[in-house]
Specification:
By secondary structure, the protein is mainly alpha-helical. 60% of the residues lie in helices and 9% in strands. The chain has a two-stranded antiparallel ribbon. The longest helix has 14 residues.
Length: 127
């Protein structure tokens, strides 16, 4: 299994992403959802992120913990750890958002398989 490319507390490795996640976590959430292959564009993810965080923060934490973070782990072959993900998201949410963002931006993309956006959502295809 691989490890995260950036530590949980490596928030300041990218000050721009750190600032964005601290001031507008819904935007970072949306970008992560898009890049993890959960929705087609960042606006969709940001909208749902804002809705969830605004109306039911515990629900948002569960969706995030069970949705985006495991997808990032799977995409980059990082060992699954549901308990650690739940604790990380609950107590260090901003740091977790930034760690995911950094992983999605800087890690080499998995080869051969991609997802193509279509009106009905993501459609997998391989070269």
């Amino acid at each position: 299994w691989n490890e995260w490319d950036h530590s949980l507390f490596g928030c300041f490795d990218d000050c721009g992403e750190c600032l964005l996640a601290c001031c507008c976590p819904c935007v970072t959430y949306g970008l992560n959802a898009r890049d993890a292959g959960i929705c087609c564009d960042g606006c969709c993810g940001a909208f749902w992120g804002c809705m969830l965080f605004s109306f039911c923060a515990p629900c948002a934490m569960c969706v995030w913990c069970c949705g985006i973070r495991p997808n990032v782990r799977t995409k980059y072959k990082i060992a699954p750890n549901c308990c650690a993900d739940c604790c990380t998201v609950w107590w260090c949410g901003c740091c977790a958002l930034i760690q995911e963002r950094q992983q999605l931006k800087t890690a080499p993309k998995p080869q051969n398989c991609h997802r193509k956006c279509s009106p009905s959502g993501y459609q997998p295809y391989c070269e």
